[in-house]
Write a structure and sequence with these properties.
- The protein contains 1 helix and 21 strands.
- By secondary structure, the chain is mostly beta strands.
- The protein has 3 domains: about 90 residues; about 90 residues, Sandwich (Immunoglobulin-like); about 60 residues.
- The strands form 5 sheets. Strands 16, 17, 18, 19, 20 and 21 form a 6-stranded mixed sheet that branches. Strands 10, 11, 13, 14 and 15 form a 5-stranded antiparallel sheet that branches. Strands 1-6-3-4 form a 4-stranded antiparallel sheet, with no helix packed on it.
- β20 and β21 form a beta hairpin.
- The longest helix has 19 residues.
- It starts with a helix and ends with a strand.
- The N terminus is likely disordered.
Length: about 270
């Protein structure tokens, strides 16, 4: 009996040692921003059938004390005294032949949480805004309303700071009343906007040759530099930019629609 018992103990130790061996690449690494929520993990059985797949979880270099010997568990990030916006790096080490699954890794992605302290635009086209309560670095997208739609005209990288933060960028003004807003979009695809701001540009309206419904063989010219778009009869955009002239000599004959300054008109290519 002693010999049988010793053999069984040796076999058990051997199985346990083999089951816990792990390759260096058997890790799931997740990096992001703490947003006040915890992670939930599905933990399958090890491929050997002995124990569970995960054998260690690290949060910012510290081994987690969460109970991981179960089929599902929560990584309690509140135990690490994190503030919203703090960086988080998680390493989940698991055995060979099995793969755990993090159910809600999106909670570590930056969210658009900013609040607008102020926003303004001057007569030179300099738009500036002040935010607070950012918890992740996301780009700010500046939009201008013209040609009966909101158009992206600039982008500024967000700093992701909870304290008040200043931003500014130069934009082009068309003649008359200009309307702008700034937005952020996170992984939920739901935008968050600042209030809208307006400025009246007293420069004369831009005109173009050959004029509304006019005909040309080679080019479209503007009375001064302006943003423009040109579409064909089927709504396909053929040209976009800023300047005083557009070469349309390669366009097939037909009618084209042109957005410029604050106007939407048309011309014919002969």
């Amino acid at each position: 009996m002693k010999r049988v018992g010793l053999l069984f103990l040796t076999l058990l130790v051997s199985i346990t040692f083999t089951d816990r061996s792990v390759k260096a690449d058997n890790e799931i690494k997740i990096e992001g921003i703490f947003q006040g929520e915890n992670l939930f993990v599905m933990n399958p059985f090890a491929s050997s059938g002995v124990g569970f797949c995960i054998f260690e979880v690290q949060v910012n270099g510290k081994v987690s004390s969460d109970e991981i010997n179960c089929s599902a568990f929560e990584i309690d990030l509140s135990a690490y005294h994190l503030s919203k916006g703090d960086p988080v790096a998680i390493i989940i080490k698991h055995k060979d032949g099995c793969t755990p699954k993090v159910l809600n890794a999106n909670v570590l992605k930056p969210k658009t949480t900013f609040n607008t302290v102020s926003i303004k635009i001057d007569k030179t086209g300099n738009i500036s805004w002040v935010t607070k309560d950012e918890t992740g670095s996301l780009p700010f997208i500046v939009e201008q309303f013209k040609w009966k739609k909101w158009i992206t005209v600039a982008q500024v990288d967000g700093k992701g700071l909870p304290a008040q933060t200043n931003y500014s960028v130069k934009v082009n003004l068309h003649s008359g009343i200009n309307k702008f807003r700034v937005k952020q979009i996170d992984y939920t695809k739901k935008p968050r906007y600042t209030p809208e701001v307006t400025v009246n540009n007293l420069q004369p309206d831009v005109t173009f040759q050959p004029g509304n419904n006019g005909k040309t063989t080679g080019s479209v010219t503007f009375s001064r530099s302006t943003d423009y778009e040109i579409y064909d009869f089927y709504g396909k955009r053929l040209a976009k930019g800023t300047g005083t002239m557009v070469n349309v000599s390669s366009f097939p004959k037909g009618t084209y629609f042109i957005n410029y300054d604050s106007k939407s008109e048309s011309f014919e290519k002969k």
